[in-house]
Amino acid sequence: MPFKTIKQFIVPQEHVFYELLQAQAETANEAALALRELMHHYKDVDKQAKAIKHLEHKGDELVHELYAQLNKTFIVPMDHDDLSGLATALDDVLDLVNSSAKYLAVYDIKKPLPAMVELSDILAKQTAELLAATQAMQSSKTFSRATKAAAEINRLENEADDGYTRGLVELFKSDDAVFILKHKEVLDRIESACDRVKQASHAVSNIVVKHG
After folding, report:
1. What does the CA dihedral 29, 32, 37, 40 come to, rounded to 10 degrees?
2. What is the pLDDT of residues 38-66, one digit of tens each?
3. Can you give the pTM of this predicted structure?
4. Is the separation of the CB atoms in 127 and 32 below 8 Å?
5. Which of 45, 72, 125, 127 supports an S-S bond with 32, CB 3.0-4.6 Å?
6. Are 84 and 69 in contact (CB under 8 A)?
């Protein structure tokens, strides 16, 4: 067997992993944008939630393909933990966006809390930065852009923490326990999605540092 063929078997083209990670980031951003649209134009909730569910299924397919590639690859182009950590965090973001939209419908929430709208705006910005970071981490020439995006994601996550706290303060002014439980469930999930984006950005930063 020619050496070139052996090498391709042992060390497949890096772009396979980078392309799958970028596709995951694109799907996460698309889902976050859809959630933001739902929050700002709160109608046809079931329909919009189903559209987000479709994106979550797409993300599942991408992460399954990535792990299939990972399991059959002898040598990967980046640290195994960083790669799987980034893929898992991106998958978590999609799961949390999907469940946020789902519970808006399941709980028949009539109107999103201002904090839900605020956090959905932040999440959309975060996932856009994460997409930029996954694109930039593919070349040492653009590592600085990935680092800048990761820093912005962390800043936005701090904004999300503050918005979440303000949301809780307002929410607990209600004396309706069921209202509180339903709305807190959704608020918790959006805040968790923001946190998972930060985790994903840490994986990107580790990749950049190790390859810089």
Report:
1. -140
2. 999 999 999 999 999 999 999 999 999 99
3. 0.91
4. yes
5. 127
6. no
